[in-house]
Specification:
By secondary structure, this protein is an alpha/beta fold. The strands form 4 sheets. Strands 8-5-4-1-2-3-14 form a 7-stranded mixed beta sheet, with helices on both faces. Strands 9-10-11 form a 3-stranded antiparallel beta sheet, with helices on one face. A two-stranded antiparallel sheet has the order 6-7.
Length: 407
């Protein structure tokens, strides 16, 4: 069955997280993503925390975003490898990279060079600060962008101080923006016939995802500080509350929900109490309101309250661990978790968060070793077996390399 990107060929030079996350979204939806990796492999192959998989050159973080991709290993410091890239670009639809701006140009395979080889090519680059501006060549990682974008200034509490998000959120945002940029450029090409440069900056992308906070300042003049676990609504019933065995997150943001909460905790009179008659009053008397709620919450555990309140249409949740949520029956009815065979047995990986009526995301192939598809891809490009053998003898290309931990 055809998928959204069936027939689209991508040359993927990305590494670590932001770029590979973006190209993975296309690979899940049918694109022929050819990962061009250096001999020995991307550093993320060897990352923690699982030593067993890391020693195989298949670190779990790397594995999570590199399924479905074919792989060729090229030494881009060699002119012959650059010539190979240009030949592959002749029939490619997309090039994706996340080097510092200027690196691909120095190699001779930047946008200007490859667009001359193929005027229809979509060249997509993600970096910390984009291809223009005074910071364009400054190195950037997720932590730097979290700190610089203002994200950490609104995360955490007054007591904890600025707090980093629990995962590489700015990398993920940058990667998803990259995938959307490529998809948009491919659609644009259907009616212009022209290629495009897609320039994604992680800093820009982070700010777009925080647009309500940004505009709260640029228009309203308000600088948001850390608000702990409270929602952006700033309402006292959209926060974390103590229960008998831990915590429960309430997301009560309107009067209908507040009335339902009051009834569910056995205090149906709360909405008529002058202290809690409306949201300004509830904010003013937050301490008293929280005391009433938590006194009742202390009588049962989080799972019990989650069940009771959800049945009463009160938005809430206990705090789930990843080990719990991946076993939730809700996910059985979706396609977000998919199993695929590997040389080490069947494994379960994450697919796309977007579901289609037909031709949706599918994990078809376990992530492969560096150079696993070198012979096949170069053969498709028109190189003879003798030429491919010469490339390998000269160290220009490698094939079927079993990655291992670097010394």
């Amino acid at each position: 069955m055809s998928q959204p990107f069936t027939g689209v060929r991508v040359l993927d030079f990305t590494q670590v997280f932001a770029g590979p996350f973006g190209s993975y979204q296309l690979a899940l939806l049918g694109a022929d993503v050819i990962k061009i990796e250096r001999p020995g492999g991307d550093d993320m192959r060897y990352g923690p925390p699982n030593k067993e998989w890391s020693d195989r050159g298949l670190g779990t973080g790397w594995m999570a975003i590199n399924a479905n991709k074919r792989n060729i290993a090229l030494d881009l410091t060699k002119p012959e490898a650059i010539a190979i890239v240009k030949k592959l670009a002749e029939t490619a639809d997309v090039v994706m990279e996340n080097f510092r701006p200027g690196v691909m140009d120095k190699l001779g395979i930047g946008y200007e060079a490859l667009s001359k080889v193929n005027p229809r090519i979509i060249y997509a680059a993600v970096s910390g600060f984009g291809q223009t501006g005074p910071e364009r060549t400054t190195g950037a990682y997720d932590g730097k962008i979290q700190a610089m974008s203002g994200l950490m200034s609104i995360t955490g509490s007054q007591e904890s101080g600025p707090t980093r998000a629990g995962f590489a959120v700015c990398d993920a945002i940058g990667g998803m923006s990259l995938a959307f940029g490529v998809a948009s450029a491919l659609f644009q090409r259907t009616h212009t016939g022209k290629g495009q440069l897609v320039d994604v900056a992680m800093l820009d992308s982070a700010l777009t995802f925080m647009s309500s906070f940004v505009v709260d300042y640029t228009v309203g003049g308000h600088v948001q500080g850390p608000s702990g676990n409270r929602a952006q609504s700033r309402l006292p019933t959209a926060d974390l509350f103590k229960v008998k065995d831990g915590h429960l997150l309430l997301a009560v943001n309107n009067d209908k929900q507040f009335i339902a909460l009051a009834k569910a905790i056995g205090h149906p009179d709360l909405p008529n109490d002058p202290r809690f008659i409306d949201w300004p009053s509830r904010i003013e008397n937050e301490v008293a309101l929280r005391q009433i709620i938590e006194e009742v919450f202390s009588t049962a555990d989080a799972a019990t309250w989650d069940e009771r309140l959800t049945a009463a249409n009160v938005p809430c949740s206990r705090i789930w661990s990843l080990a719990e949520v991946v076993k939730h029956p809700q996910l059985d009815s979706r396609t977000i978790l998919q199993k695929v065979d590997s040389p080490y047995g069947e494994v379960e990986l994450i697919a796309s968060g977007i579901r289609y009526a037909h031709g949706g995301a599918e994990i078809r192939r376990f992530p492969v070793m560096p150079g696993a598809d070198t012979d096949a891809v170069l053969g498709e490009a028109g190189y003879s077996a003798e030429e491919i053998a010469a490339f390998k003898a000269a160290g220009v290309a490698t094939s079927g390399i079993r990655a291992g931990r670097k010394s």
